[in-house]
Each structure stands twice: as C-alpha cells, then as structure tokens.
Amino acid sequence: MTDFTKTRAAFHLPDGMTYLDGNSLGPMPRAAADRVAAMMADEWSQMLITGWNKAGWYVQPRKVGDRIARLIGAGDGQVVMGDTLSIKVFQALSAALALRPDRRVILSDSGNFPSDLYVAEGIARALGATLRVVAPEAVEAAIGPDLAVLMLTEVDYRTGRRHDMPALTARAHEAGALAIWDLAHSAGAVDVDLLGADADFAVGCTYKYLNGGPGAPAFIWTHPRHAEVAEPILQGWMGHAAPFAFDQEYRPAPGIERMRVGTPPVIALSALEASLDIWDHVDMGALRARSIALTEAFIAGVEAQCPDLVLNSPRDPAMRGSQVGFCHPQGYAVMQALIAAGVVGDFRAPDVLRFGFAPLYNDLDDVSRAVEVLARILRDASWDQEEFHRKADVT
Amino acid sequence: MTDFTKTRAAFHLPDGMTYLDGNSLGPMPRAAADRVAAMMADEWSQMLITGWNKAGWYVQPRKVGDRIARLIGAGDGQVVMGDTLSIKVFQALSAALALRPDRRVILSDSGNFPSDLYVAEGIARALGATLRVVAPEAVEAAIGPDLAVLMLTEVDYRTGRRHDMPALTARAHEAGALAIWDLAHSAGAVDVDLLGADADFAVGCTYKYLNGGPGAPAFIWTHPRHAEVAEPILQGWMGHAAPFAFDQEYRPAPGIERMRVGTPPVIALSALEASLDIWDHVDMGALRARSIALTEAFIAGVEAQCPDLVLNSPRDPAMRGSQVGFCHPQGYAVMQALIAAGVVGDFRAPDVLRFGFAPLYNDLDDVSRAVEVLARILRDASWDQEEFHRKADVT
C-alpha cells in the first residue's frame, strides 16, 4: 500500500500555502536540488564529454521513459523522453497520418488544450489534411469512415472531464482510424492504461502531476504494433539507428528510439529523476482511489458551503480527472482573494475557478482548508471585484 | 579588452586535463551550480506557478536570446531560445520554404552535420521538396535559379572549414533563394555577423562553445525582414500572439516570438545564464584573434613535431573555425592514448583527430601540452592499435 503521508513529506510545500495548482506546475521534490547539484558537480563538471557514456546520459531518455511507462499502463522500452509536449503531439500526429495515407481528416474537440489544436492546424495546412474540432460530447458521433486520426486530451484542462479512452479508441479503430491520447492531465493523476485501451500513440508532459519542474521534458509512447513502422517527419540524429556513424542518410532507430530528435536535456531529466524516485513506490490504483476521495470531498464541501458556485466538472468521478472546476461570475476576483489567503488554484476564462488535487501530496486537510477559505471569502463578500482587479495589476 | 585569464578562471576544468573538446560539450561555469540551485530553491520551490511572472520564466527565452544575439551579430529582440538544434533547423527550413512557394529545392553540403540533413530529408519528403547535397567546395556552383533555400553549417564539424557566409548568402539571394546558417560550431567560436552577412535565418546550440551544459536549449534567429511574415509549421502555444487567451485558433506572436513552441526549459536556461554572465564581458573581435592564435600555434607545433599527421583543416585561418583536425590511419587508437594521457579531443571516423580550441578557457599552455603529449605518443609508438582498441572497449 502506498504511504501518502510519506509521499507528501517528500515535497517542498511552502509554509501556509494550500497548493491546488499541481495540474499547472507540480511542487519541487525535496531531493531534486541535491540530485541536480550532484549531476552538475559529479557528471558535467568532472566527466565532461565522457558523461554521455560514463554517466549514461545517452540512454537516460529511455531509462526515464521506462519509469513513466509503468504510470501510464505501457511496457518497458515503449516510452522515450525529450522536447516539449507540443513537439511530441507533432510527432505522434504526423506519424499517425503517415500510417493512414489514404485519409486526411483529423478529429479533435474543443476541450483539447489549444496548443494541440495549433499543432494539428499547422500539420493540416502543411500536409493538406483537414482538422475538425467538435464539442467533447459530439466526438463519438463525429467518428466516420473518412477519419485518419482521432486526437484527444483525455482529461479536459478546464473542466476535468475524462474521456472514455477504451471506448473512443475502439470506435476510432472500427472506423479504420488511429487514436492519439494526450495525457497532460492524466499521467500521475489517474489510472491510465494505454495497452489496455489499445491506444495507438500517447504523449504527455512531466511538469504537472509528475513534478519534473518548469519546462520539464515531454514523453511519447507508440503502441508496439506501430513502433517499427512509424515514420517521424522530425528526423533528428538521436533518433537515427546509428547516431555516431554520422551517416548522411537517415535510418530510423528501432522502436520508440526513432521518436528522439536532438540532444536530450540532461539537467532537466535529472530533476525529473528525483520525482520518479517517489513515483516508483506509488500504486496507481491507490492513487486513483485517493484522487476520487479528494475531489468528492471538495465537491461535497463546496456545494454545502458555497451555494453561489456552480460545478463545472462531471459529477460522476468515473468521468472526471483529478481536478474540479466551479464557475462564478466574478471568478477572477474570487481566485485572487483565494491566492491572497494562501489557497492556490487558478482561473480559466471566462469564469472558471480550477482546483487540482494531486494525490501524491494533497490531503483531506487541504480540502477542508480550501473549502473553508473559499466559503469565508464568498460570505464576507470582501472580494469586491474592482479591488481585486486592482491588486492583481500590482502584484 | 577581454581578460582571458579571468574567463578561464570562471570555468571548472578538471585537474590534470587539457580539454580540447569544448566543440562537443563545453565545461561547466563555476557559477552554474549555484545559479541552478538558487533557481530551484528560490523560484520553483517557493514561487511555484507564480514563477512564470514573478521570476520572469515566461520572458526568459527572449531575454537569454538577446544576450546571445550580441555574440552572433544580431539585434535585440531577434533571437529566441528553446527546443533543440534539430527542431530549430526544422522551423527555419519549413519557414524558409513557405517564403518561396514556387520553388522546391533545398541545397546543402556533405560537410553539414548529419542531423541537419536528416531534418531536411524529413521536410523534403513531407512537403514534396528535393534535397540536394553537394561537396562543400561545390556549393557556390550548385546555386541555381530553381533554388528555394541554401542551408549550411558555417563551420564544418569535422574539418573546421568555415564557409564564406556573406558571399554564399549573396549568391543565394542573387538566385532568388534564402540562406539558413547553422552556427553550432560558430557561436562563441568565431566572429559571426548575421546582419552584416544579410542572412535570412540562423540556428545554433548552446552546449558547445556557449557552455550551457549537456542538452542545453537551442536558439533561432530570423532576419527582421522575415520576422513578421514567417509561418512556422510547428505552431505551439508559446508562439501564439496571446497564449493565455486559450483561443482555439492559432495567431502567430509578433516577430521572433512565433518561433517559440512549447513550455520553455527553465532549469536548463538558468544554467545557460551562468555562462552568459561570462560571455557578456567578452569582445568578439578579441575572441576571434585569440582563436586564430591558438589554432595557428597548434598547427605549427604539430607539423613541426608530428610528421606523420596530415592537416585536415584549412591552412588559411580566415577559412577556419576554432578547431583543427589531423588525419592519422590509426586515429582512433591515437586519440584513446591522448585521452588516457589527459589531453581530451575527439575522433571522427574514418581517421580524424579533432581538437577544439575554446578561446574563453583554452590558452597557449594547453596548446603546448597537447602538442608535446601528441608528439610523445606518436614517437614512442606505445599506442599499438590492438592494445588501445582493447582499452577502449573496457572503459
């Protein structure tokens, strides 16, 4: 059984702060600073160029990938790290389109993170494909025989609504299409099972629930049935079958290694390793149970004490990730007041108060405190909109 | 005048090592570990999500870019950081092709770094363009009226041969084409003048002469005449005109900002900042003079004392970067012996011993020591090929 008191103690959480924004940027593992300092002092500084072999920098993207694989229901050797999530979306989408050369339609939804849609729009323009964007609830009906790729973010960044990955993937496959899943708000938040869902490609970032630090590297997964045939457009030397042969022609590396592009971000990966030292001991079923307990308690508390707020997330926990949204017409001002009182969530236009619950370090005390402070702010009405807008401009 | 004794003292150079491989990975600035530790403790750990504004993470890619701009003859607001060099090559090349929609030929040379050629090959296949690769000396004659983009690395990674950037750019422009320059072996090594050469796009990495650490982020420069019209295929949210409006449609940010893609690598950028604190005080003319003095002394010393070695770099320093190559039939074994004796260069197949001279921290004592050790190794012939191959397999 996972000891969540212990995992909470492994993070630096500022005194007096209830941090419910780990779905934007996770807090720092206490061991991260030492891990990075050691990498710099013992590896970069002393080994210099030999660190690529001696310290294992060259194989680090795959070794770190293997540790993430367990958290998302993937197998060893199926995940590789590097670049940013937007770049990984580009790689997955361009590779998927190449696997369906007779089809040119990409389907996504308006709940997808905008950057995913921008990347898809860029690919569609370049390759002569069409991007269709429908409402999240209209996705299933929009899957038709012309579809090349279904590209969705599993958990909606504003509402926390969780798509049914196995069902939608199966629908896409029935229609002869491939399914790409963005796990930005899933990895480390819910019990993802990529192989169980029979997904085709998946991508995600590591600076949210996975606590890798600001701008931490992304990951990409390819189902084994595609790994040896996927053709990346982004052909970089680290994805070459023999990078140090310096051949003039590109030959993709075996399997997921071909999704590497340039030189891996070694310092950033060492910070992420400190977080994975914690994750290695976490049971994902226990994590999911705790996530549901936290979000259920928060919804119940807010609805009991804050009648002005309207739930903006699915009520059924099975259809929800690890975050909860509530709407309020003066949402921005309310969130500013909350942050000033030490309860950190965030605001998404036009009116959503968004609270992320990271089971690794958030607990029921965080929930109680957040509900209590939120109720007090709304009751006192001291969060006068003008005043908080003014304050927000200053800070 | 730049004080190179002081700049040398600013780096950690392992005791007893003569490091002539800064053209692969630069050594660590002494201040880098503290800078990164401070970023982690004071910014990530304490500010959490508010660091994007409070600590300036969001504007860091441009601010760091401005400091690099001075080193490569570019202006303020023209350079932005992020991703890897291969990704930046992709961005520059796809944007350049879009500016010449009636032409589909990309010209490069066999002296270009393989990853650049792989990226170009991937783009060519995806967009229906043609990549032509000729010998470095045949580039000028190969520029014809069908050319869309000339894409070259200024300084050859094996030979150190430096292309004439102003002349080749002018030839490309006369032919109606655009010119992209990869500065991987130029930035921090020679006196680059992008605006003076009237180049169109430039890209580079920061882990070589710029000492940003293993996998440090890349940079991209767009000439101001293209900055507002260049259309990136890699459309990421950080390159959007209003990233936090979360619009569903992409609108490119003004100028070079549109070349940003995903979330910037904040920890890695802070290590690079420690190096730029040194670079800020370096006069690039003085740097170039010192580079020439070092490489000239090395060539003269080796040719005087090592008659078996054949120079593999241009003899004219004006046509050379800050590295020198020599050929030897047992080059691999000789380099292993050199490294064992504390003189670190590297080997490039089939027979090249490559020595990088980083004017910021290498000095004439490094040159003397390298020549002396190299001469002794060749004279003693104790570097028996079999033996050193065996040693290399073990270490």
Question: What does this molecule look like?
Answer:
Chains A, B: The modification N6-(pyridoxal phosphate)lysine is found at residue 208. 2 copies of one chain form a homodimer. Chain A has helices spanning 4-9, 32-47, 51-54, 60-71, 85-99, 114-127, 139-142, 165-174, 194-197, 224-227, 266-279, 284-305, 331-340, 364-380, 385-394, and strands at residues 11-12, 18-19, 28-29, 79-82, 105-109, 130-134, 147-153, 178-182, 201-204, 218-222, 310-311, 323-327, 343-344, 346-348, 352-356. The first copy, chain A, starts with a helix and ends with a helix. In chain A, the strands form 4 sheets. A 7-stranded mixed β-sheet of chain A has the order 4-10-9-8-7-5-6, sandwiched between helices. In chain A, strands 11-12-15-14 form a 4-stranded antiparallel β-sheet. A two-stranded antiparallel sheet of chain A has the order 1-3. Chain A folds into 2 domains: 4-29 and 283-394, Aspartate Aminotransferase, domain 1 (Alpha-Beta Complex), CATH 3.90.1150.10; 32-279, Aspartate Aminotransferase, domain 2. Mean pLDDT of chain A is 95; it is low at 390-395. By secondary structure, chain A is α/β, with parallel strands linked by helices. The longest helix of chain A has 22 residues, at 284-305.
